[in-house]
Design a protein that fits this description.
alpha+beta; two-stranded antiparallel ribbon; three-stranded antiparallel beta sheet; 191 residues
């Protein structure tokens, strides 16, 4: 992502040079973290053999989405895996709630699968460095199967954990349920 990309067209994928898997991982992991972005990095810390710290990545958090917005987007993206209309239906994990997004470029030259759980975010890209069409390449084919296989293995031994529902969302859900119950009661009384 470059400076020229700072325009409304990026909302529909209009990037000058595209995005890298690392950039996508940063974006989707912010949703998994409730809207907090941490710049992706390969090195967390470097120590001497005796344990003396040489370098530590401070992993600075920046709020880029409201916690409620991040939750609602995650809830929608969970449907990609769990709802029959989802583009990755059937690629959900064995014992872990997850959220995902598939992507395919023109002429099936690139296939993407971006998925995350409360524990981790993984991005899979399938394609060639020099754009070439790949037979039957869609986000939910090769990339989706790779993602599912890797994530099921990576989550072995971890407790099943769903995404935390923010307090404001819980309160809104409760208020809506109470309103629906009240309306149902009123309709039953007037029938």
């Amino acid at each position: 992502v470059v400076k020229q990309d700072n325009s409304p067209i990026i909302s529909i994928g209009g990037f000058t040079y595209g995005v890298t898997p690392v950039e996508l991982a940063g974006a989707y992991s912010a949703l998994a973290r409730g809207g907090e972005f941490i710049e992706p990095a390969c090195i967390r810390k470097v120590t001497e053999a005796d344990g003396e710290l040489i370098y530590e990545n401070r992993r600075i958090k920046t709020r880029i989405y409201k916690v409620e917005s991040a939750y609602y987007m995650t809830d929608v993206l969970k449907g990609v895996l769990t709802k029959s209309w989802g583009t990755a239906y059937g690629l959900g994990l064995n014992n872990m709630p997850a959220a995902a997004k598939t992507g395919t470029t023109s002429d099936s030259k690139d296939g993407w699968f971006a998925g995350y759980t409360p524990y981790m975010t993984t991005i899979v890209w399938v394609g060639y460095d020099t754009p070439t069409s790949v037979s039957n390449l869609y986000g939910a084919t090769y990339p989706g199967r790779i993602w599912k296989s890797f994530m099921n293995t990576a989550h072995k031994g971890l407790s099943s954990k769903d995404f935390e529902i923010p307090k404001a969302v819980q309160e809104a859900m409760k208020a809506k349920a109470e309103e629906e119950a009240h309306n149902a009661l009123r309709n039953a009384e007037s029938a």
